[in-house]
Amino acid sequence: MQSINRTALFRASCLSLLVTSLSFGIRAGILNKLGVDFQLDKAQLASITATAFYGFPIAVVIGGFIVDVIGMKRLLVIAFLFHLAGILLTIFAQGFWTLYISTLLIGLANGTVEAACNPLVTALFPDNKTTKLNHFHLWFPGGIVIGTLIVLLLNQFGLGWQIQVGLMLIPTAIYGYLFSKLDFPVTERVSSGVSTGGMYKALLNPLFLFMFVCMIGTAITELFTGQWIDVLLKNVTQNAILILTLDTGVMVIGRAFARPVLKLFSPQVLLLISTILAATGIYLLSTLTGDAVFLGAIVFGMGVCYFWPTMLGFVNTNLPETGAIGLNLMGGIGMFAVSIYTIFMGRYYDNIVQQAGGSNATAGQQVLQTTLVIPLILIVAFAGLVIYMRSKGKTASLKTAAV
């Protein structure tokens, strides 16, 4: 590790994740504009949006299987090429299919970034995984904040969405250059000597399977709601995109203070508290109107703030034998679930509007109320996790005392 520049690698990783999140933030801000320019209905917009979410799991799962073999550096070169191609094709899109393919390429790029960078962070900071994963994933909401503000600012100057998308080329070029110049460590699983067979066996641990299922719910709660907020609440407030900016801004602040928060609460308790706040936030977003919805955005942002990195950190800390594939399967199932749910909810939204005769001002709020069921189920699940981990701790203490 002596030749490994941990600080430079971590900064470059954050920059690559910034490109990932800019794609979410800018797309969320221009989604309605794309629908108008290319005459797309909500179901088509949902299909385009969903490609980023299922491109991600394809890349993150494949990356999880091959990262130990080809190394994290080569994987990030692939991510750079996918980002470059996806951004350029978006800029020169001509309709549904070019938008669909370009968004898929960006989704593949985003998944490849996480396939390499999540195990990179845990390898660089083996004694501080959950905190550093939170600091790394700070740049996901951070990029969404920057992306939505770019959309709002450039819209004021009348600049088109092509220019907004094109700005992503700048950080893409920088992270590609930085990674090409740096040396990388091997993954933690390789350095610790855990066999490939041992890694696959660990994936069958009931605790991993439980967290794997819960990741479906936490990902949908956070990412579907955030990505579609401009569409869902456009009839509730004239500044729907600012809701996304606000709730992701709260997430940036929360993840920046992950270290003191994780000193106060164990990861499993933090997940339970987060789920309660997320459910409350979605309820407020689905019932409040006008500027009052910004209160819901703040509560929602507090709720989903720690979901993704803490889920990954919990798994890698308690089940380190699962290695990079464990991290990437978690991320993969999360994004895949969001893609399927997004397609389903896009059609559900259109059906609500059609049944109302072509207009329904509360259609978005009805979609949110349906989504509220997911964090409510997670509250029960994470309460059970807290009880289980406490009993596991007591059992461990008794065994130690017996020895």
Notes on the structure:
With 403 residues, the protein is mostly helical. The chain has one domain: MFS general substrate transporter like domains (Growth Hormone, Chain: A, Up-down Bundle). Helix content is 83%, strand content 0%. The model is unreliable at 396-403 (pLDDT under 50).
- What's the average pLDDT? 86
Determine the N-to-C terminus distance: 36 Å
- Which class best fits the helix and strand makeup? mainly alpha
Main beta-sheet annotation: none
CATH class type = Mainly Alpha
CATH superfamily: MFS general substrate transporter like domains
- The ordered string of helix (H) and strand (E) elements is HHHHHHHHHHHHHHHHHHHH
Can you count the beta strands? 0
Give the uncertain stretches in residue-range form: 396-403
Q: What oligomeric state do these chains adopt? A: single chain
The best one-word shape is globular
Number of helices: 20
Attribute tags:
single chain, 403 residues, mainly alpha, Growth Hormone, Chain: A, 20 helices, globular, disordered C terminus
Summarize the structure.
The protein is an all-alpha fold and 403 residues long.
Q: Secondary structure elements and their pairing?
A:
Elements: H1 6-37, H2 42-70, H3 72-91, H4 96-124, H5 129-137, H6 139-156, H7 161-166, H8 169-181, H9 188-192, H10 196-202, H11 206-227, H12 229-232, H13 240-256, H14 258-264, H15 267-287, H16 293-304, H17 307-318, H18 323-355, H19 363-371, H20 373-402
Helix pairs in contact: 1-2, 1-4, 1-6, 1-8, 2-3, 2-4, 2-18, 3-4, 3-8, 4-18, 5-17, 6-13, 11-17, 11-18, 11-20, 13-16, 15-16, 15-17, 15-19, 15-20, 17-18, 18-19
